[in-house]
């Protein structure tokens, strides 16, 4: 697939994630997908690696802990064959009264039209302060 086609797969996945469309997301994820959140300590619920079931559970968890889900705005793109890099901003109004506003960089590997790898770089302290305190 071309870089443009791979970008569309990634865009569609993030739209499904934001809408908590787990069926739509599942259709875009490779059965061997992994999502690695790059928290240094590994003690946060989102640090470390998730498989397909973990990703779908994360989608549900974010939706259940927020008033209207997580709004994602895709800002900048870099395309290189199977490698799709995207800078994004996430915004959610949480059930605990806090506002979650994070910036991310994702490196996504798309293989045969499905997402095989996600590598997330974001502010894990923002996650701790909003989700865990």
UniProtKB/TrEMBL annotation:
InterPro entries: NTF2-like_dom_sf, SnoaL-like
Superkingdom: Bacteria
Bilayer-spanning residue ranges: none
Domain (SnoaL-like): residue spans on this chain: 10-117
Protein name: SnoaL-like domain-containing protein
Source organism per UniProt: Microbulbifer agarilyticus
